[in-house]
Amino acid sequence: MSAIEQLFSLPEYSIDNDKKRKLLLSELNVLTKFHYSNCLQYKNILNNLNINPETELDNIEAVPYLPVRLFKTQKMQSIPDSEVLKVLISSGTSDQQVSRIALNRDTSLLQVKALASIITSYIGNKRLPMIIIDTDATIRNKSSMSARGAGLVGLSNFGRNHFFALDENMNLKVDEFIDFVEKYKSEPILIFGFTFMIWQYLYKKLKHLNKKADLSSAILIHSGGWKKLLDQAVSNEIFKSELYDHFRLKKIYNFYGMVEQVGSIFMECEEGFLHTPNFAEVLIRDYVSWQTLSAGENGVIQTLSILPRSYPGHSLLTEDMGTIIGIDNCRCGRKGTYFTVSGRVPKAELRGCSDTHAETVLSAGS
Fold first, then answer.
1. 152, 183, 264, 293: most buried, per Cβ within 10 A?
2. For the whole model, what pTM was predicted?
3. 6-16 residue pLDDT tens
4. Which residues pair with 300 in a beta bridge?
């Protein structure tokens, strides 16, 4: 059984970190060689850095990484155009460059499989009635899709009887929302949306109208940048507290991820920490020396994933700051590295799905 087969065959978050790192390293070495041979831009970068892809690395920290910003300016692709199944486009405000990530069938299938392994470990294998806090207009173009649209499509696979709670003008369908919750009150409901949109269009709207809905059995999964909510003094703790007070919503899970490594999402656990799944890892690097840091030290987040087959995105230096809290010993019981995200690298662009939408909304209102 290959390394990737072993990583997918085991229950999510069940592998001791030492064993997981060995399996990941084996696959990451393969990917480095593959992308070197098939992506000219990646080959030129490694050559300029005097990195020999044929050298078998003996630790995960040595895997060469690319700055995620590079995907905004370069066509980083390891497959011919004829094999491109779809192109994912990163979040960005109108004056920003965006990443364009070309996916082939193999990469897309791996991403779907990986996401299923993560999400079902939280909600179970049964499809749940689902509320999506967005408009269905976001997912109409299947061949060229935004990060926001990709998130909606990916998570929608775990629901049934989907209800898009917003109209095309981003107004909450208040009566339909309340009717949907009432209809499925005898079973868990899955809710997905981006953080700012849940706060702005669901919570604030219903609070303003003094309308409530019993979501005590629901599961909320959300993602997107926190910057604009933090600007409004809304932290993760306040977000959870207000949603509990208004909806009795207890099961709230944030996740960290990016379009450049779709599928490799890092879900928040019940203790409030983000966890690395079987097929991904994070490292923290010093902002000046770029050396890896130990647990408890804050630095720039590097993400590694064995999913990208169509582009050299298997080792990326993000524009986010974070801290590894521990490994294999979280009180939630999940094994692997667990960490927190503290914000953006200084002067980094605003680029989270939630934050970029919030920027557009708040700019229009100013």
1. 264
2. 0.89
3. 999 999 999 99
4. 285, 321
